[in-house]
Amino acid sequence: MNVCLRVGLLASVAAGFLAADVTYNQTTKFIGGSLIEMTKKMASMPMLGRMGGMRQAFEDQHYDIYVKGNKEARIGSLSSTIYDLDAGTVTRIDNNRRTYSVMTFDEMREQMQRMQERMNQRQGGSGDLQFDVKSEKTGQTRTIDGQTATETQVTMTAKQASQSGQMVIKMDLWLVPTNSSMKEAVDSQRRLAEKLADAMGGFSPMMGAAGGGMAAALKESFKQDGYPAVTDVTISGVTAPAGPMGGGGNSDPNAPLMQTETTTGNFVSGAVDDSKFSIPAGYKEEKRRH
Asked: What's the CA gap between 206 and 242, in Å, rounded?
């Protein structure tokens, strides 16, 4: 009986270490590309600029990220998102309007399928993208937050083309050695990415087929030896979803569609308060339209 008790206690302690709470932050900068330029032009139009927060869509995004078991909260100044894999829900919080909405992954899948079918009918192609992948360690190094980061360049070329072109994704990953906090964050990101990929099918209403490219890029980054402290991504070979809409959007598929830089750091292991996964006081639920 005592042996069983000791084994049980050891198992509980081990599980606690394996599923440690983690806090870190992440900033994504949208450097350029035809989609970003087009969106900025559309946002400057009186009617379109007031729709759906378009003006803020591709501004720099900074998030404090909290991981606790199968929950992850991405807390930003304008908006926040809470993912609960056990409950199967995504909660989106609008800090400007002081509102929130809740959607299950099944509901998200159904919504994305309907939107993707409508877009495919107009543009042709499919969101189910497969890529040929080429990875190369360049031997270059740089110092990031006191750590030596090594450079790996990954080029992903879509195996199939659509009417808007053949997508090419180039990633420049600056990798640092992983610690336990980073590994826990990666495991959380991997679980979440798999769930979102299933729910969204690689489709994004704003980015069109590029959403599938970003999902594939994230998946590929998980395979690298080290943690990507800085990730530069360039997507080309596909035109912006809205085409010439927005005052002469670039329709050249060889021009970059989107260029981003994401920095991730300040990993801290330690208990995360449950309040990070709660709706702020006074916020009202915004019911979704079916």
From this structure: 9
